[in-house]
Design a protein that fits this description.
By secondary structure, this protein is mainly alpha-helical. The protein has 2 domains: about 1-125, Tetratricopeptide repeat domain (Serine Threonine Protein Phosphatase 5, Tetratricopeptide repeat); about 135-200, no CATH class. Helix content is about 45%, strand content about 10%. The protein has helices at about 1-15, 20-30, 35-50, 50-65, 70-75, 140-155, 155-170, 180; strands spanning about 80, 85-90, 100-105, 110-115, 120-125. The strands form 2 sheets. Strands 3-4-5 form a 3-stranded antiparallel sheet, covered by helices on one side. It has a two-stranded antiparallel sheet with strand order 1-2. Helix 1 packs antiparallel against helix 2 (about 20-30) and helix 2 runs antiparallel to helix 3 (about 35-50). The model has no long low-confidence stretch (mean pLDDT about 80). Keywords: TPR repeat. It holds the Pfam family TPR_19. This is Putative Chaperone binding protein. One of its GO terms (molecular function) is protein-folding chaperone binding.
Length: about 200
């Protein structure tokens, strides 16, 4: 029965299983193809899956079946653009008072909640600025990056200690403790089995 499928679809949606929700709404629509609410709800599940074309088609069908269904207008009523440096979001919510709208945002998230009297609350929460994957380094490259990061974020005493220890030891010692290396010459410490020779020019 369509109402049972609709109930299961709503449960799947609440559990963030949006693929299952879309499948269940589709099965319910096969049984009840003139149900505007089912189209509007499937549109919301498609939005969560970033299936925006399908979401707009479902919202349009819901509006065609029932022009008074507010949530269908909300499902299709946003325009969203995301670049590496900015986000532009426009949401159209006709006839909704400002005190029914809540907007919250942070560095990686945006949340828009619209409370529609007598309807299911509209919630739009896109992912912003996906974090770029850091390049995986290994061996000397990883070690050099570690030292560069330490140096970049260090205070002046740590930078002086790193420079002095590296230069005086001919690149075999790297210290961050200025109290330890500031008052004495840093002797070279070659790896085991190797000999340190002074370069002459």
């Amino acid at each position: 029965m369509a109402t049972d499928l609709e109930k299961r679809a709503k449960e799947a949606f609440v559990d963030d299983n949006f693929d299952l929700a879309v499948d269940l709404y589709t099965q319910a629509l096969d049984m009840d193809p003139n149900n505007a609410n089912l189209y509007a709800d499937r549109a919301q599940a498609n939005i969560k899956l970033d299936n925006f074309t399908e979401a707009v088609a479902d919202a349009n069908k819901a509006i065609e079946l029932d022009p008074s269904i507010a949530k269908a207008y909300l499902r299709k009523g946003h325009d969203y653009y995301n670049s590496s440096t900015e986000v532009v979001l426009t949401i159209f919510a006709k006839g909704i008072p400002a005190n029914n709208v809540s907007v919250d945002f942070g560095e990686q998230m945006l949340s828009v909640i619209i409370d529609i009297p007598g309807e299911e609350t509209y919630h739009f929460q896109p992912r912003l600025f996906g974090k770029e994957k850091e390049e995986k380094l290994d061996g000397d490259a990883a070690l050099n990056k570690l030292f560069q990061d330490i140096y970049r974020d260090a205070d002046e005493d740590v930078k002086r200690a790193m420079n002095k220890s590296f230069i005086e030891s001919n690149g075999t010692v790297l210290s961050t403790n200025w109290k330890d290396v500031g008052s004495k010459k840093v002797e070279g410490s070659p790896p085991e089995g190797l000999e340190l020779k002074k370069w002459e020019y």
